[in-house]
Design a protein that fits this description.
The complex is a heterodimer of chains A (about 500) and B (about 450). With about 500 residues, chain A is an alpha/beta fold. Chain A has helices at about 15-20, 55-70, 90-95, 100-105, 115-130, 145-160, 180-185, 205-210, 230-240, 260-265, 275, 335-370, 400-410, 440-460, 460-465, 475-480, and strands at about 135-140, 170, 190-195, 215-220, 245-250, 270, 290-295, 305-310, 315-320, 390, 420, 430. Chain A is globular, with a radius of gyration of 25 Å. The chains are: A alpha/beta (about 500), B alpha/beta (about 450).
């Protein structure tokens, strides 16, 4: 099953909430006020009501149903966005997350009333530490980038404790943009490490950059080119030799889950993306959750509070008395509802299921790469892991860019891969099929990619015009940024 | 549980397609020294039935807001979530989509975000909203980064009536030394303005404040901030804005809020919704995603992510923020919810909160062991009480035993009580009776 495309034969595009609004229409209901009326003093009152839509419930349902019909999700079809791990989101996770014993918990309830929730967090933390080879983890960061910043603040606190926070953090040139942005927010300067001809960290260049002013190195492994950093042991030695820390960006953990653990590779700090590896729904841009796990020497710096378990009393509680902790990185306890779904994924799969996830993800990417590489050469020669980065460079002579390929794939019924990332690859197509896609889907997608490569030569106009089947065609992004219209 | 669809034959055929004969060969280039030579120490996988039973067991170990009558607040509130909110937000084309990188396939998300931004601007009386942040406290951090960027100064003055969790979160990010946080005490003392100088980047107020009270004299700090060229930041409650004057009218340059109250579940603290709105002067300093309206090649209206030159995937280390994944789904739920309320529903809901909180506070204040902590203050839906005969923690515990959730207990030992539109007079009367026994 490859999925259903998003087509342009739905209701009119001009439907907006604002357009549906009519004074005096309403959807809301409230019981009659059963206590005496109370007035606010004049100075505090609002005089001009906000211009919110006035619509009937039926209008709202139709409006948002239509919005869903012009949107593409994993449930709609194949979604091979590189570095995003858009795998199937299990429905059972929704069932358990909706249990009132999870969904209806107030975040400030006393611990004695939430032993089940704390048990879940404790067991999830233990499992994530086992998967990553780390000692302890915080579940507070609400997304991967928040996890990065949390990890870097831990790094800073660790170095600070020994007298000098240092000033630089090393980042490969293929890194995701959140890495350098997080480095700046953590008060460090990002220093780029070049990739070598294999698309791996250039160990020689790295060794020249390493000095005792380097706080750490942020690395994704497999890296954003989908390649395993085979010299990881040497990289770890180079960093640790000067007292620097090794940070693991968990964006690509899906490739190695159950096979290799960041801790065993020498990493000191790991963040995970539950919406990638553990299939929690991404909701069109979030929520995620970005747990951060650390090695024993960094445990004291993890945000507070940390979940704890008193074995004698069989009681879970929040441990707050942690003087070296960096503080709080989320208002409450992180994205608990997302963590419940991650728990369902981890414990539903179990040790055997998780190992199979990594194996099938890598098999799918390799198989698909073999099918398309004749038309779209791999950017680097090494064996891909869970994703591969190919290039649309050969099509350039026909005036076709990676974006044209992506848009034509939409007309053929597929969500395209990531394009133009990593930045180090010209005309990059970054493809991550994930483990939950079948051979048939991969075959069909490969056929579509090969068809597009042929059309680039035979009918390039078709690609420039694409997409033509969607509710809107190519949108003028320059105009959007120039003539800002950010609200009705 | 397994979701990979491969048959054994598929696996063999796919391996053959790559010129391989075993799955192990795919991992052969990984260095021997780092490979895990054992199974993960995690239990064997479960069937769906077993998983639901096991997680159901854990869920049943919790007391919750359907089983306790919820008068708890302190930043998360038991407002009613109408049925349509999650029926629509849960539509899986929305629910299982990624960040809208391909706008032609993502018009549903993008249009909803545009409508969300519009409604947040209307609510706050400000000019621009982004497409969501993680939660209220992290939205305050982002607002402070905006103020620091705009003023190139580093001192942040925060009122002592701001939720301590917001302050704590702010201090954590302040560890990176881009700014320092000073709290000025509440109740306010004369001379607060003297703290302001031309090194101040922002003044932060919360209204209604952490203790539920409406701020009065604090607004002079906003005036004073503007006199020294600092930004003013208000933490607000979105559901108060049907009845309370909006941040834009109160002199806030940037307004941030916890948006959980807009159709999102309590869910033990997340996923919630960070709201941020500002004036156009700061649009290029806004963090995160922003949806904008434009046209397609045929001139039809459509929506895209815009002003991306602020963002990490373009600007990298010079980005306004590192945020990538945000809380789009929660913003979507808020959009559905605000459509359901409309201007009239928002005002009515606010009227109910004000009246019910007033009624509860007056009844509680009549008890001998209870005093209102800020007796002369007005409030919206929450108020702080001082339990004079019994420790607040004990009162809270005793109330749980008889079926009521109140709190939290503040650092000062005060007990917060919040009364949303969901609470009935009968529930309030029962709470007062239980309170009488618990507090004496």
């Amino acid at each position: 099953m490859t999925g259903a495309p998003v087509r342009n034969d739905g209701p009119p595009l001009a439907w907006t909430l604002k357009g549906l609004s009519k004074a005096g229409r309403r959807a809301w209901t409230l019981p009659a006020l059963d206590v005496p009326e109370a007035e606010l003093s004049e100075g505090h009152r609002r005089h001009d009501p906000p211009d919110l839509p006035e619509v009937a419930e039926r209008d709202i349902v139709r409006h948002f149903t239509r919005l869903s019909q012009i949107n593409y999700g994993v449930d709609t079809g194949f979604y091979p966005l590189g570095s995003c791990s858009m795998k199937y989101n299990p429905k059972v996770a929704e069932t358990v997350a909706a249990l009132p014993g999870f969904q209806r918990l107030h975040p400030l309830q006393p611990e004695d009333t939430i032993q089940g929730a704390l048990e879940l967090l404790w067991r999830l933390e233990r499992a994530l530490c086992e998967i990553t080879g780390m000692a302890r983890a915080t579940l507070q960061p609400p997304a991967g980038a928040a996890g990065e910043l949390t990890g870097l603040l831990i790094m800073r606190a660790y170095h600070q404790k020994s007298g000098n926070p240092r000033t630089k953090v090393l980042i490969p040139d293929s890194a995701h943009g959140t890495n350098p942005a997080s480095v700046t927010l953590a008060g460090y300067r990002a220093v780029q490490v070049p990739s070598d001809a294999r698309g791996l960290v250039d160990l020689g260049a790295l060794e020249k950059l390493v000095d005792d002013d380097v706080a750490g190195l942020m690395l994704t492994n497999p890296n954003t080119l989908g390649l395993f950093e085979e010299e990881i042991e040497g990289i770890a030695r180079a960093m640790h030799r000067v007292g620097a820390l090794l940070y693991y960006d968990g964006a690509n953990l899906n490739a190695i889950i159950g096979k290799v653990r960041p801790g065993d590779m020498g990493f000191d700090i790991v963040h995970l993306n539950t919406h990638k590896t553990f299939a929690t729904p991404h909701g069109g841009g979030g929520p995620g959750a970005g747990p951060v796990a650390v090695s024993p020497r960094l445990e004291a710096f993890l945000p507070s509070p940390l979940i704890a378990y008193d074995e004698d009393g069989d009681r879970y509680f929040w441990e707050r008395d942690r003087p070296d902790a960096i503080g709080r990185v989320h208002g409450f306890n992180g994205n608990f509802g997302v963590l419940v779904r991650a728990f369902a994924y981890v414990f539903g799969h179990g040790r055997d299921g998780l190992r199979e996830v990594g194996e099938r993800a890598v098999l799918n990417a390799n198989y698909l790469a073999c099918l398309v590489r004749q038309a779209y050469p791999m950017a680097y020669p090494g064996r891909p892991m869970h994703e591969f980065v190919a290039t649309a460079r050969p099509l350039k002579k026909h005036g076709i860019r990676a974006m044209d390929v992506a848009k034509r794939l939409i007309d053929l019924g597929f969500h395209p891969s990531t394009v133009y990332f990593p930045l180090v690859v010209e005309e990059a197509l970054m493809v991550e099929p994930t483990e939950t896609e079948s051979k048939e889907t991969l075959d069909a997608f490969a056929d579509a990619m090969l068809q597009v490569a042929q059309e680039a030569e035979s009918d390039p106009e078709l690609l420039h015009e694409a997409p033509v089947t969607t509710p809107v065609r190519r949108l003028d992004e320059a105009k959007a940024a120039r003539e800002l219209k950010l609200r009705w | 549980m397994r979701f990979a669809p491969h048959t054994d034959d598929d696996v063999q055929a796919m391996l053959a397609g790559c010129g391989l004969s075993s799955v192990e060969e795919l991992f052969q280039h990984l260095p021997e020294g780092v490979r895990l030579d054992r199974d993960l120490d995690i239990p064997e996988g479960l069937s769906e039935m077993e998983l639901v039973a096991e997680m159901g067991r854990m869920a049943r170990r919790n007391r919750h807001a359907d089983d306790l009558v919820c008068f708890a607040g302190g930043g998360a509130y038991d407002h009613y979530v109408p049925s349509l909110v999650w029926a629509l937000t849960g539509r899986s084309e929305i629910y299982t989509s990624y960040t809208p990188y391909q706008p032609e396939l993502s018009q549903g998300i993008l249009q909803a975000l545009f409508e969300y931004q519009s409604m947040i601007c209307e609510l706050t009386g400000l000019e621009v909203s982004n497409a969501s942040l993680y939660d209220g406290p992290t939205a305050l951090v982002e607002a402070v980064h905006m103020a620091v960027g705009a003023t190139r100064r580093g001192r942040i003055l925060v009122s002592g009536s701001v939720d301590p969790r917001y302050v704590e979160t702010l201090r954590t990010y302040g560890n990176a030394e881009h700014f320092s946080v000073e709290v000025f005490p509440y109740p306010y003392q004369p001379g607060g303005r003297d703290r302001l100088g031309d090194d101040v980047a922002a003044v932060v107020l919360q209204h209604p404040n952490f203790f539920g009270a409406l701020e009065n004299q604090a607004w002079e700090m906003f005036d004073a901030a503007h006199q020294v060229g600092a930004r003013t930041i208000q933490v607000f409650d979105p559901l108060s804005l049907g009845v309370l004057a909006p941040p834009g009218e109160l002199g806030a340059d940037i307004a941030v809020a916890e948006g959980q109250v807009l159709g999102n579940h309590l869910s033990y603290g997340g996923p919630y919704l960070g709201i941020i709105a500002a004036r156009m002067q700061d649009v290029r300093r806004m963090p995160g995603r922003i949806a904008g309206e434009t046209t397609d090649v045929e001139g039809r209206p459509g929506y895209v992510l815009t002003l991306q030159a602020r963002e990490q995937h373009i600007r990298r280390e010079k980005a306004t923020s590192n945020i990538c994944t945000n809380q789009t789904l929660m913003a979507y739920a808020a959009t559905v919810y605000l459509s359901w309320l409309g201007p009239e529903g928002l005002r009515e809901l606010g009227r109910h909160c004000v009246a019910k909180a007033r009624y509860a506070s007056e009844r509680l204040a009549d008890l001998s062991g209870v005093e209102l902590a800020f007796g002369d203050a007005e409030f919206f839906k929450e108020f702080a009480v001082h339990t004079t005969q019994v420790d607040a923690q004990d009162v809270q515990r005793r109330l749980i035993e008889v079926g009521f959730l109140v709190g939290p207990v503040t650092e000062e030992g005060l007990l917060l009580v919040s009364v949303t539109e969901r609470r009935t007079r009968e529930e309030i009367d029962r709470l007062v009776k239980a309170f009488e026994e618990a507090s004496s």
